[in-house]
Amino acid sequence: MDKYGLIGFPIAHSLSPRLFEAAYGGRYTYDLIDTEDFEKAWEGFMYGYRAVNVTAPFKGDAFACADWRSPECGRIGAANLCVNEGGMVKAYNSDYLAVKAILEPLERGTAAVIGYGGAGRAAMAAAEDSGFSTTLYRHGEIAGGVSADLIIYTLPRAVEGSDRLECRNLLEANYKDPCLGGHPGYIPGTEWLLQQALLGYALMTGEKPDAEAMKAVFRPHAKA
């Protein structure tokens, strides 16, 4: 039976196993490969798994090790999903795909992406390709505040200036410890994670996931 998993560190509290179990009714194994050693994690993937999600700090490493990269993955320089096809690794970026899906119904205009990590670069590419006039900010560049029609906040925590963000819609990447909830037009990180999983799991398995079962993971009665 094909096995799937997530590589990164630290990932002990990731929601990905619950989402994957819900997506396919528990028919497939999904493991956490939780190690600081990328080479060890990659070897485990190559010899034991059909496909893996990749999170920090290994998105750049996974990109470099892939044999084939999707166009958006190549543009961003980071991969967060790898599929092993008989020893040939194909790399994708489901952050990009998720942000594009979220932005599709929004009114176009200016966009500010805050954070220069893998998620920030993916968000910038997705916003540009969605028709937004986009500017990328590093965390130290927002102390005076930022104003745009859309702000995509990819930093893991609040920084100086994060209380001075003016926008019509605000998408936050962090779903574990969000710091901007309650902002007008707020789109939570759980929506980003859900869209990433819906689109990514289909690439990993070749099968359509159960969207309603996955959405139930985020409902208030669901256990953390």
Secondary structure: elements and pairs:
Elements: E1 3-8, H1 16-23, E2 29-34, H2 38-48, E3 51-54, H3 59-65, E4 68-69, H4 71-76, E5 81-85, E6 88-92, H5 94-103, E7 110-114, H6 118-129, E8 133-137, E9 146-147, E10 150-153, E11 165-166, E12 169-172, E13 186-187, H7 189-205, H8 211-216
Parallel strand pairs: 1-2, 1-3, 4-6, 7-8, 7-10, 9-11, 10-12, 12-13
Antiparallel strand pairs: 3-5, 5-6
How is this structure best described in words?
The protein is an alpha/beta fold and 224 residues long. It has eight helices and 13 strands. It has helices at residues 16-23, 38-48, 59-65, 71-76, 94-103, 118-129, 189-205, 211-216, and strands spanning 3-8, 29-34, 51-54, 68-69, 81-85, 88-92, 110-114, 133-137, 146-147, 150-153, 165-166, 169-172, 186-187. A six-stranded mixed sheet has the order 2-1-3-5-6-4, with helices on both faces. Strands 8-7-10-12-13 form a five-stranded parallel sheet. A two-stranded parallel ribbon has the order 9-11. Helix 6 (118-129) links the parallel strand 7 (110-114) and strand 8 (133-137). Helix 1 crosses helix 7 (189-205), helix 5 (94-103) crosses helix 6 (118-129) and helix 5 (94-103) packs across helix 7. It is globular and about 50 Å long. The model has no long low-confidence stretch (mean pLDDT 94).
